[in-house]
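Reply to dn_fold:

You asked what the input looked like. This is it:
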Amino acid sequence: MEFRAKDRVPLLTGVLTVVSLALVFAAVGQVIPNDAIPRSESLVELVPHLNAVISLAAIGTITAGWRWIRENEVARHRVAMLTSFVLFAAFLVLYLYRVSLEGPSEFPGPEAVYLYVYLPVLAVHILLAIVCVPLVYYALLLAATHTPSELRQTAHRRVGRVAASLWLVSFTLGVVVYALLYVVY
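and this is what came back:
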């Protein structure tokens, strides 16, 4: 039997989701030995700032992609959404690098801000980021395995709309988390 990615989009989505989330949880849980990762202090310190810029760029590319598909500019939409995914992948690699070496950042501000602002924003950001992973993979795999005319017969539009919405909110909340950790406090 021939393996065709087009016929296995849900399976591939599941596999990619499990692998991606396993890497994230392994990094956050510091399961990966520190001596297995080359350490660059300057890069470790730069990662939060790079990721804030990447997040802002991703907000722009997702918004542009959304606008272009509404204007039926499929080629521009595709480029914008692929760029968004590349930005997300770069963000994730940098985040995993830093958190594997340093662990999660501690909040330096007042306890009340920590409890009533930072933690709720962080929790929603993390929840949306986790929920987005399979949605983004599914929408991208559908787009990668189907022609634009075939996509109209799939859940790409519906799933893509939800994925893009949640992705935008997650990236935006990530910028808020960055501002609370590195700008305000």
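Helices lie at 9-28, 41-70, 74-102, 111-145, 148-151, 156-184.
Hope that clears it up.
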